[in-house]
Write a structure and sequence with these properties.
By secondary structure, the protein is of the alpha+beta class. It has 2 domains: about 140 residues, no CATH class; about 130 residues, Mago nashi protein. About 15% of the residues lie in helices and about 35% in strands. It is built from 4 helices and 17 strands. An 8-stranded mixed sheet has the order 14-16-15-10-11-12-13-17, covered by helices on one side. Strands 1, 2, 3, 4 and 5 form a 5-stranded antiparallel sheet that branches. The protein has a 4-stranded antiparallel sheet with strand order 6-7-8-9. A hairpin with an 8-residue loop joins strand 3 and strand 4. Helix 3 packs antiparallel against helix 4. The radius of gyration is 24 Å and the shape is globular. The model has no long low-confidence stretch (mean pLDDT about 90).
């Protein structure tokens, strides 16, 4: 009597073990489950460590955690869509010989997807301290960070503290009384960066949506290659124009400083000018990290180059 063929010999596909379903933000109970969620969105978080006791290599940061009452992770509906989000504090691996550094990341449940927001200051600032606070029942993110220290014995300096809300697709400063200035008449955003190559651009936008964009890029040393420039014009679509108008109107322009300085080299610089009837506000931002609201404005303005229908500027 012949033996029955095995499944492999018969050509049938092997039966794969079912992977356990991912936890939800509402259901996570352990650091391992939080890490599983983070890594499901970005594999870089396979190299992220969450310690519920918040043991960190830098005692200066550990002391601030204790002082602020930081927790390894917290849940709250930060974006106001009725679903809980996560604020996670942990350690990020950079590979030998570099030490782990403390980091904060927010995981937001958008309904059809999970979105990670690392707050955009991870590589320019140091020792972030974040916790959820409430004002009139609304969850907000209290956030503080510092200039990168040169030596381990140095005191942490240039503390910058923010109270943040999630609006317009990102975290920005919470403003309980927005709209004091009304819509802008025009704005301009000039961006400059140079290292081995340089990139400079300027976008001017008025309240009607008419925009001009000029940019040049190329090697710093001219013998290494050509410089490429463009001059374009477009009418910004109402959706993007209204979002920019509402964002600028939400922010308190009077609280902006004339200049923001960076404590590291080789960073971009921005000059933002907001023109209102009878007044003008100009900000020079060395590092483009001056405030969270400014960072969000820069990102929305930069996106216009890719999302709008630009035409060569006729002279």
């Amino acid at each position: 009597m012949l033996d029955e063929p095995t499944a492999a010999e018969a050509g049938s596909a092997p039966v794969l073990a079912k992977q356990p379903p991912l936890p939800t933000i509402a259901s996570v109970r352990t650091a391992a489950e939080v890490l599983q969620l983070l890594a499901s969105v970005d594999a870089a978080y396979d190299h992220f460590t969450i310690d519920t006791a918040l043991r960190v290599p830098d005692p200066r940061v550990a002391w601030r955690y204790r002082e602020a009452g930081v927790r390894a992770w917290e849940r709250a509906d930060l974006d106001g869509n009725g679903r809980p989000d996560l604020v996670v504090t942990g350690l990020l691996e950079h590979g030998a010989p570099y030490p782990q550094t403390s980091a904060v990341v927010c995981l937001l449940d958008m309904g059809d997807s999970l979105v990670l927001d690392d707050l955009g200051r991870r590589y320019e600032r140091y020792g972030p301290v974040a916790r959820i606070v409430y004002q009139q029942g609304r969850p907000l993110l209290s956030y503080q960070d510092f200039a990168p220290p040169i030596l381990q014995v140095d005191s942490l300096r240039d503390a910058q503290a923010f109270l943040l809300t999630y609006r317009f697709g990102g975290f920005i400063e919470y403003n309980p009384r927005p709209g004091l200035h009304g819509p802008f008449d025009s704005l301009s955003y000039k961006h400059d960066f140079a290292y081995n190559d340089f990139n400079t651009s300027k976008l001017v936008l008025n309240a009607a949506g008419t925009a001009t964009y000029s940019a040049c890029k190329g090697p710093v040393l001219k013998e290494r290659g050509p410089t490429i420039c463009e001059q374009l014009t477009a009418t910004v679509a109402p959706v993007q124009l209204n979002e920019l108008m509402e964002l600028v109107n939400y922010l308190d322009a009077d609280q902006l400083q004339p200049r923001y300085r960076a404590f590291i080299n080789h960073v971009p610089a921005a000059t933002l000018t907001l023109a209102y009837r009878g007044r003008r506000i100009r900000v020079y931002d060395d590092g483009e990290k001056g405030t969270f609201g400014l960072m969000r404005i820069y990102e929305l303005l930069s996106n216009l180059r890719e999302t709008q229908q630009w035409q060569p500027l006729q002279r």
